[in-house]
Design a protein that fits this description.
The complex is a heterodimer of chains A (about 375) and B (about 400). With about 375 residues, chain A is an alpha+beta fold. In chain A, about 50% of the residues lie in helices and about 15% in strands. With about 400 residues, chain B is of the alpha+beta class. In chain B, strand 2 and strand 3 (about 145-155) form a beta hairpin. Classes of the chains: A alpha+beta (about 375), B alpha+beta (about 400).
């Protein structure tokens, strides 16, 4: 049945995350971006929320709460409203852990999940994107060749989030016509992790390149074991999650522009009283809302186990286009001030352009 | 109900049935587009034995659906205009005047006139988006207990076929918006003339009339809601009148979306015949230009549909939806234009041929962003709400 109703629990968690984002994220965002740093103190603070561990089954040391992609979408929108870079860092551990929970074999779960349930921030990462123009997740160039019982991985990856901290990488590679995910430890022989990449936006989120030069891994490294796993679903999940981040970002822009436009005067009245500005704000609102419903739809499809490739594609493409439009016009509403780093809008503008091409960095 | 985007088996069955009937109407789409002087019969030959499972104009107390009734009504509207726009009017009962009656009429008035198809007359030759400038007057004749109506109305949807009309007239021009009241005038009342039927760009099977009222006398109790008092400025009386639109705006969005979906379905089929592969989950750069564009338009449709369902869901929950109604209509108003224009561009010359319905769908959908509040009026409403501004703050 069609419904847009948050449960009481979802409302509570949304409000709690909204407060957390306003108090613990927004005030840090500018400095973290300027210094390109991700403070350990923040990661520790966010770790105590238990965003990842509470959703890991009890047998592996987690909280055993049933994971709800829809609730996770509500949470992630609030975190991204605080700051998109810090939000991705906050939920990055789930990117790896959820993949293991959903697709891993029993042995894989036992080997990797307990580390996500300890007291200290722990993360793995997903290595999906590849360097060069025209990257397409359906046409990967990184390959896995069988060797003995195991595999040899060759290729290059880029924009791997938290490559400096991740204990393991989930490397997405072509394997004999199919696509598979391989669990590769950071100290694997033949794996080189680059210096931190320098990006347009999300500078607080360190990303890295990986070079895989004939990296040999055992059969146990293939996610899902002999059957492999549904990598498509894993990537669809990440696209839906990224759409949610972009919704939170767009909302941040709109909510910053509204009071600004009411305060800023030109020709003896607030600029908000001019249709030229008021209509831009109305349009931003229309797109923030519409993007959110598409993202919720994809999250709901994930939750119910329905086909999600198309709805996640739509949510991701739409949010990508519209968050860029919203941020772009946010800069315009502020005029010259939109271009000055004293206001966060230029930061969000850079975030928006970055997020729109950066799939494989978050999960629901 | 927690957040959910799936339909129950029963609701899907209802909507499937609506689409089957829609397809029957599509057989007549071209004929009535080209013969706008004729009215489609109440029952089309193929539809004589067809049993509709859902009345598009179902009453709010209709509980035979699982999702909220406004949500299913919107999806049914999408389904019926997906068949053809004219199907909606063919069944009658669902005039905009009926919505006004159920929103503002007394229980007795609803009982008395509920069975009539009622048009709604607001626009006049000199006023459209600003209905506070209504010139049509209603003067109370205390001696005979009658209202005397004088004035002109244009763009009256279903105006020729309706049994009567709810019209806006001022009882006190000096009071501005507060002086505007709604009156019910039945066809056949002396002094009430249907002056002509408009010739339009699209939705030609949908009759649009112009009315003239000359010393037209109606009973005193034909004042909708029976409140004769002219409230002081800012008392919100006019806002009550405008509430009529909170449900009709998402319905107008839905009607436009049904046309856009028909255009998308036709275009998808033709593109696939021509060898275009639609692939989801990959990068836009690997898609052919028509495939990328098509998926973009499909996404626009989906976004618009969800915004519409959201406004309807709120209505079904009894929650305020004034802004969301405007969001849905503003979104759909531009989306359907872009979709139908884009489909023609993708298909090239075949897109404009009158051998197919695509060119008609472009003409039909164009009204979506105009009637029941242009896209600009919707943006004004949204902006005022966002900014906490009154009508005087932001004009």
């Amino acid at each position: 049945m069609i419904s847009f109703e948050l449960t009481e629990e979802q409302e509570l968690v949304r409000d709690a995350m909204r407060n957390f984002a306003a108090e613990a994220m927004r005030p840090l965002a500018r400095e973290c971006d300027e210094t390109e740093s991700l403070p350990d103190a923040f990661l520790h603070q966010v770790w105590e929320l238990g965003l990842t561990s509470t959703q890991i089954p009890e047998v592996y040391g987690g909280g055993g709460e049933e994971r709800s992609p829809v609730t996770n979408a509500i949470v992630l929108e609030e975190l991204a409203h605080g700051d998109a870079a810090l939000a991705i860092a906050a939920v990055a551990p789930s990117l790896f852990a959820n993949a293991l929970v959903d697709h891993g074999t029993e042995e894989q779960k036992q080997a990797h999940l307990p580390a996500f349930c300890g007291d200290a921030y722990h993360t793995g990462s997903l290595a999906l994107i590849e360097p060069g123009a025209l990257f397409d997740p359906r046409r990967l160039r990184t390959v896995a060749e069988p060797k003995g019982q195991g595999f040899v991985l060759s290729g290059a990856k880029s924009f791997v989030p938290l490559g400096d901290r991740a204990s393991h990488f989930l490397v997405i590679a072509r394997n004999n016509g199919d696509t598979d995910a391989f669990i590769v430890p950071r100290d694997a022989r033949g794996l080189r992790i680059s210096e931190t990449e320098k990006n347009l936006g999300l500078r607080a989120l360190p990303t890295h390149g990986l070079e895989l030069e004939r990296v040999e891994v055992g059969p146990e490294s293939r996610l899902g074991g002999n059957d492999g796993c549904n990598v498509r679903r894993l990537l669809d999940n990440s696209r839906a999650a990224l759409a949610v981040v972009m919704v939170g970002l767009s909302r941040a822009v709109l909510e910053y522009c509204v009071p600004y436009a009411k305060d800023r005067e030109a020709f003896d009245e607030p600029i908000a009283k001019k249709q030229a500005i008021a209509f831009l704000l109305a349009e931003m609102h229309i797109e923030v809302e519409s993007s959110r419903w598409l993202a919720w739809q994809a999250a709901s499809h994930l939750e119910k186990g329905h086909a999600v490739t198309r709805s996640a594609h739509m949510a991701y493409r739409y949010a990508s286009e519209k968050s860029m439009w919203v941020a772009d016009n946010g800069v315009q509403v502020l005029g010259g001030h939109g271009f000055i780093r004293e206001h966060p809008v230029e930061l969000w503008f850079r975030h928006a352009r970055t997020l729109g091409v950066l799939e494989g960095t978050v999960a629901l | 109900m927690p957040i959910d985007f799936t339909l129950s088996e029963r609701d899907r069955g209802i909507l499937q049935n609506v689409r089957e009937e829609g397809l029957i109407c599509r057989n007549y789409a071209r004929y009535y587009d080209e013969h706008e002087e004729e009215f489609a019969p109440d029952v089309l030959p193929e539809a004589a034995t067809f049993e509709p499972s859902f009345d598009v104009s179902a009453h709010p107390y209709d509980k035979r659906v699982d999702s909220g009734l406004p949500v299913i009504s919107a999806l049914a509207s999408i389904g019926s205009t997906w068949g053809d726009y004219s199907v909606r009017m063919r069944r009658g009962g669902g005039g905009l005047g009926n919505a006004a009656l159920s929103a503002a009429g007394t229980d007795e008035q609803k009982k008395k006139w509920g069975g009539l198809t009622l048009a709604m007359a607001i626009t006049e030759p000199g006023c459209g988006s600003d209905p506070s400038k209504v010139q049509c007057t209603a003067v109370l004749d205390e001696a005979s207990d009658e209202w005397v109506i004088d004035g002109e109305k244009i763009f009256v949807t279903t105006g020729c076929r309706a049994d009567g009309v709810i019209l806006w007239a001022t009882v006190d021009k000096s009071a501005g918006r507060a002086g505007i009241k709604s009156f019910l005038v039945e066809k056949g009342t002396p002094g009430f003339v249907v002056a002509h039927k408009e010739k339009k760009l699209g939705i030609r099977a949908d009759d649009t009339a112009a009315y003239v009222f000359t010393e037209c006398r109606i009973p005193r109790e034909n004042l909708l809601g029976l409140n004769e008092e002219v409230q002081t400025k800012g008392s919100g009386g006019f806002r009550g009148v405008m509430k009529t639109f909170n449900m009709t705006r998402p319905m107008v969005a839905a009607i436009g979306l049904g046309i856009a979906e028909a255009a998308l379905d036709f275009t998808r089929e033709e593109l696939e015949k021509a060898g275009v592969v639609l692939e989801y989950g990959g990068s836009e750069s690997s898609l052919s230009a028509p495939a990328a564009r098509f998926i973009r338009l499909e996404t626009l449709f989906e976004a618009s549909k969800l915004a519409t369902l959201r406004a309807c869901w709120l209505a079904g929950e009894g929650q305020p939806n004034n802004t969301e109604s405007s969001v849905s209509k503003a979104h759909a108003g531009t989306a359907v234009r872009e979709i139908c224009q884009g489909c023609i561009e993708m298909l090239g010359p075949m897109g404009i041929s009158r051998e197919h319905l695509l060119e008609k769908w472009l003409r039909d959908c164009r009204i979506t962003d105009i009637y029941e509040g242009t896209g600009q009026i919707q943006r004004l409403i949204i902006a005022r709400d966002l900014l906490g501004y009154t009508r005087a703050d932001l004009k």
